[in-house]
Amino acid sequence: MASRIMNLVRHFTRKPTVGMTPSDVVFQENKWKLLRYRSEQTSGLPILLVPSLINRHYVLDLKPGKSFVEYLVARGHDVFIIDWGTPGPEDRYLEFDDFAEAYLGRALRKTCKIAGVEQAHVLGYCLGGTLTTIHAAKHPEHIASLTNLAAPISFEDGGLLAAFSNIKTLDLEILNQAFGNVPWPLMQFGFHLLRPTMNLSKAVYVMDRSEDDEFLDGFFALETWGNDNVSFPGRAFVRYIQELYRENRLVKGEFALGGQLLDLASIEMPVLNIAFKHDNIVPVESAAILNDLISSTDKTLHRLGGGHVGAVVSTKAATGLWPLISDWWRERDPVSNVTRIAV
């Protein structure tokens, strides 16, 4: 037992190596940055990865051997990602449209310009997938294909998180006035309500595997990410919760971007939609409904095992989820035989 505890302490006190795939900042505006991962040569259209606003981007580049980004670079993809950064007090006035239209649009145009192409494959993870879907419904011109990864679309099927957001005593305007940016500990508290015994079960599970160094390295890397959260810009949060979670406007055709009502049926590009059967944050029904609402003739829905985060960074992902997505892009890549030198 003593050796197990000492091994746990050693891993706990050692700083995990996260977000290690080499990259360069190729564009920056306000707090967000566009990163391009280094590669000697690439082929095909570039990939733009769009993470959630409230989680750090490096979940997709967690650690060597458990990095979706590392895998894509090794397969010759030209990979870009948005790092949303950390909002300051002045960002409390940013609107949802600033992220879904202005910032995302600039990131997509910069990706295409830097790569020397007209279109890019776009992947949105969680809230990032909600943002990319909204953007694609109005601005499809630079999107070669859309991949959604555990992305909420219908918020009536939002599970316990939707129930928490609909609590009548949760006054969004007062919250915004009191805090400006909604503090990440407050949002994390909401996520903990989904699984109140989660920390206890983690402790038991970790103790059982306390002599497995590879497991502990991955566990503490994921815990580092899970506790490195970002506050939500106030005005954007108010609209997100009110119009999406509470009123479910996106699937009703009542959600506007830049003053224009969106119709998800306007999405005609190839779409890959992936939902996870044990996802307690984005239930399968919340994500899967997208395929019923779009006009794409090339659309695929996968209901895979696993949870919201674990399925994306697990050891199994390297032989299952990651090749599935990479192969899907390659099959729809009009320039897959053209090799470009990455800078």
Structure description:
With 343 residues, the chain is α/β, with parallel strands linked by helices. It is 42% helix and 17% strand. It has helices at residues 2-13, 68-74, 96-115, 127-138, 159-165, 172-179, 184-194, 198-208, 213-226, 234-246, 249-252, 284-288, 290-293, 310-313, 321-331; strands spanning 23-29, 32-37, 41-43, 47-50, 79-83, 120-125, 143-149, 256-257, 260-261, 271-276, 299-304, 339-341. Strand 4 (47-50), helix 2 and strand 5 (79-83) form a beta-alpha-beta unit. Helix 3 (96-115) packs across helix 4 (127-138) and helix 3 packs across helix 10. The chain is globular.
In short:
The chain is built from 15 helices and twelve strands. It is α/β, with parallel strands linked by helices.
